[in-house]
Amino acid sequence: MSKKDNGTSVILAYLNEKNRPYSAQDVFCNLQKQHGLGKTAVVKAMDLLAQEGKIKEKTYGKQKIYFADQSQFRDVNDADLKAMDKQISELSAEVQTLTQSCRQLDTELKELNSSLTTEEMMAEIQELKAECSGYKARLEKIKSATNHVTPEEKEKVYKEREVFVKEWKKRKRLASDMMDAILEGYPKSKKEFLEEVGVETDEDCKAVVPNT
């Protein structure tokens, strides 16, 4: 586009190619990014083209609509229209097929981008090997130790624990019953009684009787 024609050649070619009605605002929005046309220049260019008879214009209220001069196009008969309709249908089907292919390729591309590269995979394998080596060394150390607890020893410990817990609960209950009997005739509170005799409860020591 030369500075001399102020965008008229571009606008004329665009209207002839699209062959549909446009306002000056439409043409400005559609051509601004690609050709850098200003809105004032577009309005002046379209008015000039209309005055020269290269395009047609119609006014609807305050709105002007511009379109290509239809006399430059050959007449279209019914056969041509049917052929065009067929071509449009075929092209629409092709567009749909290509769109689906693009979506599938885009999905595959996203999967590939989210996958590890060969270098990243090799690095991760090395990390896993080092981790496995550490686990093996730890396992061998455990196996070679001489202080393993046998199942019999483990069972003995559990049984002793159960006996001690039962005895703990029994003595706690007896102590509680004795204390309740004493407190019936004691003039002070339970807390004052415990402080006076110097008794510490499980709660004072934050000791909890475990479940058997």
Notes on the structure:
A two-stranded antiparallel ribbon has the order 1-2. α2 crosses α3. The relative contact order is 0.05. The chain starts with 7 loop residues before the first helix and ends in a 15-residue tail after the last helix. The chain has 7 helices and 2 strands; from the N terminus they run αααββαααα. The radius of gyration is 47 Å and the shape is elongated. By secondary structure, it is mainly α.
Concise description?
67% of the residues lie in helices and 6% in strands.
Poorly predicted segments: none
- Could you describe the largest sheet, including whether it forms a barrel? 2 strands, antiparallel
Radius of gyration, in Å, reads 47 Å
Q: From the helix content, strand content and strand pairing, which structural class follows?
A: mainly alpha
Shape descriptor reads elongated
Q: Count every beta strand, where a strand is a DSSP E run of 2 or more residues.
A: 2
Strand content: 5-15%
Mean pLDDT: 87
Q: What is the topological layout?
A:
Blueprint: H1 8-18, H2 24-35, H3 39-51, E1 55-60, E2 63-68, H4 78-114, H5 118-144, H6 151-183, H7 190-197
Antiparallel strand pairs: 1-2
Primary descriptors:
about 210 residues, elongated
